[in-house]
Design brief:
The chain is α/β, with parallel strands linked by helices. It has helices at 6-21, 26-33, 93-97, 168-183; strands at residues 40-41, 46-48, 53-55, 60-61, 66-68, 73-75, 80-81, 86-87, 90-91, 109-110, 113-115, 120-121, 126-127, 132-133, 138-139, 144-145, 153-157, 160-165. It has one domain (6-183): Hexapeptide repeat proteins (UDP N-Acetylglucosamine Acyltransferase, domain 1), CATH 2.160.10. A hairpin with a 2-residue loop joins strand 17 (153-157) and strand 18 (160-165). The chain is globular and about 60 Å long.
């Protein structure tokens, strides 16, 4: 019933980890994936090549997110990655065009992705290989990030572009506003 070849034997532990992970809570799932214990990783999130993922403390990974770390993926502390977001660090487009889309193809291109600390990556975002997202950036839902994002800005759209830049004073004022509103509840 099961294949006994190199690829199957390499993939089977990952498949079983994902299956078992569906029955765990966030903290148990983080431990199963070898992530920091402060990580909250929701159901159906998938990590491709978790050994190439560097994740900071206090990160949140939403339901159904796919983190492809095959080309190297770094996520800074206190960063959230939204529901059903896709982070790609590889592309096989050229392997497809050359009819060489097979395991181990030398036409699969891998480029690392870096997401800074204190970032908010909305739901249904697509991040393409080779992108760097600066610290304290916000990526609005349904955006496609195909090029680098500067720190302390809000980007949105397809392709994502900068809509707002903000400084520390703006963030502190917004934090004070939200805390005051929440205290009134």
């Amino acid at each position: 019933m099961f294949f006994d070849d190199e690829r199957s034997n390499r993939l089977r532990p990952q498949i079983l980890t994902e299956l078992v992970g569906q029955y765990l809570n966030d903290a148990e799932r983080a431990r199963l994936y070898g992530l920091p214990e402060t990580t909250r990783i929701r159901e159906r999130a998938k990590i491709i090549n978790p050994e190439r993922l560097r994740l900071g403390e206090h990160c949140w990974i939403g339901e159904g997110a796919v983190l492809d770390a095959s080309g190297g993926l770094t996520v800074g502390e206190h960063t959230s990655i939204g529901v059903n977001t896709l982070v790609f660090t590889h592309s096989s487009w050229l392997a497809n065009m050359m009819l060489e889309n097979h395991t181990g193809s030398d036409l699969i291109e891998r480029k690392p992705v870096s997401i800074g600390k204190g970032c908010f990556i909305g739901s249904l975002v697509v991040i393409m290989p080779g992108v760097t997202i600066g610290d304290f950036a916000v990526v609005q839902p349904n955006s496609v990030v195909a090029k680098d994002v500067p720190e302390r800005c809000l980007v949105a759209g397809n392709p994502a572009r900068v809509f707002q830049r903000y400084d520390e004073e703006y963030i502190r004022a917004e934090a004070a506003r939200v805390r005051a509103e929440n205290a009134g509840d």
